[in-house]
Amino acid sequence: MRRSVVHRRPLLDLLDRYASLHPGEDETVQRMQAFIRAHADCFARTCLAGHVTGSAWVVSADHRSVLLTHHARLGRWLQLGGHADGETDPFEAALREAREESGMEDFREVSGDVPPVPLDVDVHPIPARGAEPEHFHFDVRYLLIAAPGQRIVRSDESNDLRWVPADRVEELSDEESLLRLARKARALLRSP
After folding, report:
1. Using 50, 70 and 90 to split pLDDT, how confident is the model at 1?
2. Domain count along the chain
3. Can you give the pTM of this predicted structure?
4. What is the CATH number of the domain that holds 167?
5. At residue 68, what are phi and psi to the nearest 5 degrees?
């Protein structure tokens, strides 16, 4: 194995594990793995073709609400998350972003696996802005449960931040990527 692949190997292995649990998502997983193998700098936003991102579907302690942000730059409702900025563990990036974008600190990851297995993976385009060309986010998404009693604080990256009833997410967005997260989280939280 070339030395430059070593820091990417844990994510490639994690995606193999994810694919074994979600066999219908092979195309997305293979696209992510091909990108990661082709770009030694895949964890840095300076990788102009795209980069690995980490995000979190944050659910309230009673599982009745999800925390969504109205992203200032993209102008739509999304889960919390963002750039890895060199962090090679997408879970750590997702957790950092959840804390930064919500103002909360205390979360529980749901899979119970080490390393945590993502709830979802997604590849989506990000429009060009200024000198930054259109590129792709290779997003690794985790389910987090927020501890009760924490106050949310909107970050500068957001126009709005709010708890939304879990069964009303589709009233804010019709994006399949977001709705898929909602469906997967509901199914996982219902399972014994």
Report:
1. very low
2. 1
3. 0.94
4. 3.90.79.10
5. -120, 150
